[in-house]
Write a structure and sequence with these properties.
With 618 residues, this protein is mainly beta. The chain is 7% helix and 48% strand. The protein has four domains: 117 residues, no CATH class; 250 residues, no CATH class; 113 residues, no CATH class; 114 residues, no CATH class. A hairpin with a 5-residue loop joins strand 52 and strand 53.
Length: 618
């Protein structure tokens, strides 16, 4: 068995020759998030592989835990056919299929037909090919005027997007662009909400007395905004207004089945196979789910934390929804937020169980806890790949740290698999040859599907490629720390295969070194997401996905971020939010607010070089 982490590359299902050199060289591939080592001897055509999976939940032989299992040696006609055997092993009867004429590799799943193969590799230290980077684009599907007049498309297209688990972005006229983190369909109205808008005095300047601007934009032309102050149970009056908006949708890969699983309120499946969902979670793939509340009522969102649950000998998937404020949800077509405002934190399970805990915003005060049931459709974004894994000691296990860093510097998002949990990094810091991820979108649970009674603990994780695992645990809505853990953890780092395009690189003075500001603006107006890489110094880089974007009348762009925290080195240090605006003028503006308190810790302005990435070409 060979394990040569420098020989990792990309092979597409439609690449007849492959990215491997079959003329006498043994190659090794690691596919997705399954730690699999494969050797191929081209002179004999003998392919052998070893499947090595992380034990997710200790104890028992269940779908949640996989032991090391050798796979049978077989004779193949090409490297691609050999690689087809590396598809996720989940106990189903799967047969590798290879079309020599087209070079297509697929796995025939008895219950679902053919699933195309897609794996990433690098040849040495360079990226050779990326022939299948998930080409789905943001598509304009709906536009409404401020008076509710439909200017383009139809609301039914938004409803279809929710039913299909699609992603959605909204351009609120004139110049605000945001992700719809939480989607509601009620009767004839669709609304998209985000809480990641912080108050500004102008397009690139924060207000001195910082407050949230929880924003819900509806297809009727109405917008609802609630304005709680940071760290205090007080808010400005809610506002409602009419404003024109344009809606963009990006679908899942149409060549792959979605939803992959559907559960009723009492757990039985109405579509798909649970093993396909659990396999996707173990791969670290992003999960999206739609909750069916009635014949004309549905909610759609991405859980910030996905976890495996072992219950009664069965494996279940649990998604935690953290960043959501309570609202009327369209009752009587009323889409306002509740007053007083509260966090509405929920757990959704493939078993149908649906616990929710509600805590007043700005105060460590419980409003209500409930347990109900929900019917859910579970969708998988397949556009992710395994990149690197390390032991708890920080020693490389599979893949390449250099390749992980290379993809991060290309703007790619990253998800991290540790213990029985998969999460997307809220912020990434690269310092020399170490990658540090902040994971701040969760509260602690008593079990994967149970909230503790009468307590809510905000769990802030910092996880590094050197194995360091730091967890700071605070009372929700408070600066009171209840626990601090300094541990070590093995982890797998999962990179998005969807390409991000560098459309602009600015220096410290905002001068365009690569691309143009007009190309950036054009991509944003076409619905694209935005990621920014900030060059702090020669060894330190900060990478984040933009929460919302504002475009000035002169074409300059301001990108706002919220989920970034400053941690100190002493036990007495109280962390603070680093609420940030980056501008194409080369400025990085921060306002610092104590975690769980209405205390400003100062403001900073720095001149920085920035790389601006979009996930759709302008």
């Amino acid at each position: 068995m060979f394990r040569n982490t420098s020989d990792i590359g990309f092979v597409s299902q439609m690449d007849p020759k492959g990215s491997y050199d079959d003329a006498g060289h043994t190659k090794v591939a690691y596919v997705q998030n399954l730690n699999k080592a494969l050797s191929y001897a081209p002179d004999t055509g003998l392919c052998s592989s070893v499947l090595i999976e992380q034990r997710w939940i200790n104890g028992g032989s269940t779908d949640c835990s996989f032991d090391t299992n050798p796979m049978t040696s077989v004779v193949v006609n090409s490297t691609l056919q050999c690689l087809a055997l590396m598809q996720p092993h989940s106990g189903e009867n799967r047969v590798a299929s290879f079309n020599k004429a087209t070079g297509e590799c697929s796995i025939v799943i008895q219950s679902q037909g053919s699933a195309p193969y897609n794996a990433y590799v690098t040849q040495g230290s360079t990226i050779r090919k990326e022939q299948n980077p998930c080409p789905e684009v943001w598509e304009k599907v709906f536009e409404v005027d401020s008076d509710g007049t439909v200017l383009f498309g139809d609301v039914s297209q938004l409803v279809s997007a929710i039913k299909q688990g699609s992603y959605m972005r909204i351009h609120q006229k004139p110049n605000l662009f945001l992700e719809a983190d939480d989607l509601i369909w009620k009767g004839s109205v669709v609304c998209g909400s985000t809480i990641f808008v912080l108050s500004k005095a102008s397009w690139d300047v924060f207000e001195p007395n910082m407050h949230w601007q929880f924003t819900r934009i509806c297809s009727s032309g109405m917008t609802y905004v609630s304005k709680p102050y940071l760290g205090i149970k007080s808010n400005l009056p809610e506002v409602q207004y009419s404003r024109a908006s344009t809606w963009f949708v990006r679908k899942h890969k149409e060549s792959l089945p979605n939803p992959v699983y559907c559960n009723t309120k009492t757990s039985p499946s109405t579509c798909g196979d649970l093993v396909n969902l659990t396999t996707a979670v173990k791969h670290g793939f992003e999960i999206r789910l739609s909750t069916v509340a009635g014949t004309q009522e549905m909610y759609s969102y991405c859980p910030s934390r996905v976890e495996m649950q072992l219950s009664s000998g069965n494996c279940k998937v649990v998604g935690q929804m953290f960043w959501k404020a309570g609202g009327y949800g369209g009752s009587g077509l009323d889409f306002r937020f509740f007053d007083p405002l509260y966090w509405w934190i929920r757990l959704y399970s493939t078993g149908g169980t649906y616990p929710a805990t509600r805590w007043y915003i700005g105060d460590y005060s419980l409003r209500k806890q409930t347990t109900s049931t929900a019917a859910n459709d579970w969708f998988v974004d397949h556009c992710w790949m395994f990149s690197y894994s390390h032991t708890a000691a920080g020693n490389p296990e599979f893949g390449s740290l250099q390749t992980l860093v290379k993809f991060l510097l290309l703007g790619r998002r990253v998800r991290i698999v540790f213990d029985s949990v998969a999460m997307e990094a809220d912020a990434i810091m690269i310092e020399g040859d170490m990658v540090l991820a902040q994971l701040v979108s969760q509260i602690e649970t008593q079990t994967p599907i149970t909230f503790p009674s009468n307590t809510a603990h905000f769990k802030l994780i910092r996880l590094s490629t050197n194995g360091t695992f730091l967890a700071d645990i605070y009372n929700l809505g408070s600066s009171t720390r209840v626990q601090q853990d300094k541990l070590v953890s093995a982890a797998s780092w999962i990179i998005e295969t969807r390409q991000w395009i560098l459309v602009l690189r600015t220096d410290e003075n905002g001068v365009a070194l690569t691309g143009s500001k007009s190309n950036l603006e054009q991509a944003i107006r076409a619905g694209s997401r935005l990621r920014c890489l900030v060059n702090i110094d020669s060894l330190k880089r900060l990478i984040m996905t933009v929460d919302n974007t504002d475009v000035d009348t002169d074409g300059n762009v301001a990108a706002q971020f919220f989920r970034l925290i400053e941690f100190g080195n002493s036990a007495a240090f109280v962390p603070y939010w680093r609420i940030t605006i980056l501008t194409t003028n080369g400025e990085m503006k921060e306002t610092h607010w104590t975690l769980g308190e209405n205390v400003n810790r100062g403001n900073t302005v720095a001149s920085v070089a920035i790389d601006w990435f979009v996930d759709q070409a302008p």
